[in-house]
Amino acid sequence: MAEQGAENLSVVVHRAGDLRLENRSVPEPGPNEVLLRMHSVGICGSDVHYWQNGRIGDFIIKKPMVLGHEASGTVIKVGSSVTHLKPGDRVAIEPGAPRDIDEFCKIGRYNLSPTIFFCATPPDDGNLCRYYAHNASFCYKLPDNVTFEEGALIEPLSVGIHACRRGGVTLGSKVLICGAGPIGLVCLLVAKMMGAAQVVITDLSASRLEKAKEIGADFTIQIKKETPKDMACMVQGLLNCMPDITVECSGAEANIQTGIYATRSGGTLVLVGLGPEMVHVPIVNAAVREVDIKGIFRYCNTWPMAISMLASKRVDITSLVTHRFPLEKALEAFETTKKGLGVKVMLKCDPSDQNP
Question: Could you give the CA distance from residue 114 to residue 110 in angstroms, rounded to a whole number?
């Protein structure tokens, strides 16, 4: 249990550039919620973006907001209507929980529900804190052989699953991934798990491409001064064919252009990275070659699959964690992420258990 009057240390963004560690009250779980003692929470690029800019697109911070949405913890109290979880259960948290059963929920695409609750998206608080209450239906029990950190990494892994699913990655697919940050790397892991025969990944950073090579990339290309058409030719040269699927994970205009030029006719370009609202792209090239362009918004129906995948030990995702900090050093952890050091920075929220 949370001790009476326990302090709930939380990482709170007040406005652009103003990030604070502060104590908040321990929440009481509603009838359909569970109260969790948080264990591991990863820092996402979006958390850093809210701290630096106070907004992402139309999502604007108007009141102080707790950050964090890549998380796992232990159930310490269950709401009156919760039957599938009990105190002591270790869980991974899916941060997006629909508030209404609307037409999107009815067709199983609940991530598109306009009224969805989502951790650390204004005005909804995230879970970078000691104690946090969440919709119990979106807390998934972890098997004993899956660690808390793996549980937290299911969130970025889910982006990769959703992107590869939307792209139609399957046995024998040839895949191009643009961008080797955390999301590009999970897309690489998932594409290989789904049966991709060869994966090419591109980035500006040599160290990120080194990491990509370590976790299974067949080919890497460090982008220097090449034009998007040059890049498309280089990819084709490495694969001896054009990729069936391109997964764009940077949001950079040049990469989206490369994605169109590189993808084979009849193939699919999946846009994962988000950049400016308006970009110049060779849309006619895509149109006349029947290259399908698909977007993704977060993910849906991925947690059970990700847990099975991790429990099978056929995928090693923990190598993505390069830095660990106790919750008290959250500001230092955010600075580390902002500088682009390492890949995934993990915060440890339970002072009595700092293990992975």
Answer: 9
Q: Whole domain around residue 38: which residue ranges?
A: 8-145+313-348
Total domains, the chain = 2
Residues 140 and 175 reside in one and the same domain:
no
Inside any domain, residue 3? no
The answer to whether position 57 is within a domain reads yes
pLDDT digits (tens, 9 = 90+) for 44-72: 999 999 999 999 999 999 999 999 999 99
Q: Which of 72, 11, 68 is nearest to 356 (CA)?
A: 72
Q: Going by DSSP bridges, is the β-strand pair 344-348/321-326 parallel, antiparallel, or unpaired? A: parallel
Q: Is the residue at 322 inside a domain? A: yes
Q: Is this structure's pTM higher than 0.90?
A: yes
- CA-to-CA distance for 276 and 257, rounded, in angstroms? 14
pLDDT (tens digit per residue) in 259-285: 999 999 999 999 999 999 999 999 999
Nearest-5° Cα angle at 177, 301 to 313: 50
